[in-house]
Amino acid sequence: MDELIPLRDARLGDLSVPRPGYDRSRLKPGIVHIGVGNFHRAHQAWYLHRLMQDGQALDWAVLGAGVRDYDAAMRSRLRAQDCLTTLVELGPDSISAEVTGAMADYLPVEADNAALVAAMADPAIRIVSLTVTESGYFVDPSSKRFDADHPDIRHDIAHPGTPRTAFGAMVAALSRRRAAGLGPFTGLSCDNLQGNGDILRQTILSLAGATDPELASWIESRMTFPNSMVDCIAPATGPAELELVRGFGIDDAAPVTHEPFRQWVIEDRFCAGRPDFDRVGVTFSDDVHAYETMKIRILNGGHQVVANAGELLGLDTITEAMQHPRIAAFFGKVQAEEIAPTVAPVPGRTPEAYVALITERFANPRIVDTVRRVAFDGSARHAGFILPVIEDRLAAGGTIAGLALVEAIWARMCAGTREDGSAIEPNDPLWTDLTEAAAAARSDPSVWLAQSRIYGTLGRERRFAEAFDGWLNLIWSEGCSAALDRYTSPR
């Protein structure tokens, strides 16, 4: 192989793939993004890059940020390559690459978040966006209310000048802006949460109100939190992905692989302005809820249908799970009969068409998305993606047999062993509690549903509890495959 070209501004002209055509020295930050993972760089940063390629939005460059120790490693990798990223698009029949450059810098990762607070207090920053995972908003999964008792939140309330969380840092920056006579920035969540803007608003207002009610009132009256729906599968980067980017002659320590599909739907509520994202395919809508319901229930919920069963049966990737006859039949039936009926159409797409699209995307053989990554944080993902569907089905008097089986498979998975006896490594912030409940549920399934932090009162719904009990007993006595066969067999 020829010598690899280091991914640096000075070497962009030597690359053989599409690359920034704009002068990156002219970039001026307008956005702070907290949580610079693969998804952000394959999705939001890509849309911004497309605008910049057209000579637009050069004053909307991204300042990357993180609040956890592991973010420092990503900062180091990205700053060593001038915050450039190689995106490798993996289509079913083709592979292509491009280098994107919408990120201007990555802020220091500090215990007191001083640099982050200072950056967000700068009036040049007009949007603060986040991808901090579904469980990262300090919301009780059952009540959906702000969790003021979390140790990190208690710290931020007691020490508002040296916050530990992203939200404490946002509140501290907003306090500085208000004191300086400046307006607020827009808070833009890009996480897979129903009403993600509303949830971000609740977190910020609750935290601000605990330390400075007048600041909370100012935020409530002047700041905007648009809801958004984001969609693009971007697997984790490992040795295979690093080798893949080398095939394009590029030395990139943090490449991102992704599928060809992208979608972004946002409410057009930006108190300090925004880039012209609609020029590059972003949809602005007053009905984001319809889009996010379709995506969260069919795609994100579908991921849990596939990943938990795949983990239990010893499969490695979502594609392998979709190639498994029993899991594929399970996915198809529960989507058609129980999930899609709770979803309304959106302009240009029916729920049935979206199920077909998701089936095709999950089966893409080039997307090496592991069942472990998709199953991560199941306590938040089941609460957000599956349980609302069960509640709607129960209210409508519809069948919930397949959804109850989804929950029983997850409960069995959380026992911590696959059916071949191999161990499942911890994969949830609540893993210890989940494994204890799963062990007890082997003899008494009601113990699992009694986890009120996840199920609230749903676990006491008779139809759901009876179906769940039956499936979990069957899985423990005869195995997951027997349960899948019973559900999918013609009756």
Describe this protein's structure.
The protein is of the alpha/beta class and 491 residues long. It has 21 helices and 13 strands. It has 2 domains: 5-285, NAD(P)-binding Rossmann-like Domain (Rossmann fold); 289-488, Orthogonal Bundle (N-(1-d-carboxylethyl)-l-norvaline Dehydrogenase, domain 2). Strands 6-3-2-7-8 form a 5-stranded parallel beta sheet, sandwiched between helices. A 3-stranded mixed beta sheet has the order 5-4-11, sandwiched between helices. It has a 3-stranded mixed beta sheet with strand order 9-12-13, with helices on one face. It comes from Oceanomicrobium pacificus. This is Mannitol dehydrogenase family protein. Residues 30-278 form the Mannitol dehydrogenase N-terminal domain.
Q: Walk across the major sheet and give the strand order.
A: 6-3-2-7-8
| Rg | 23 Å
In what range is the share of β-strand residues? Answer: 5-15%
The first-level CATH class of the largest domain is given as Alpha Beta
Domain Mannitol dehydrogenase N-terminal: 30-278
Domain Mannitol dehydrogenase C-terminal: 287-469
Keywords: Oxidoreductase
InterPro entries: 6-PGluconate_DH-like_C_sf, 6PGD_dom2, Mannitol_DH, Mannitol_DH/Oxidoreductase, Mannitol_DH_C, Mannitol_DH_N, NAD(P)-bd_dom_sf
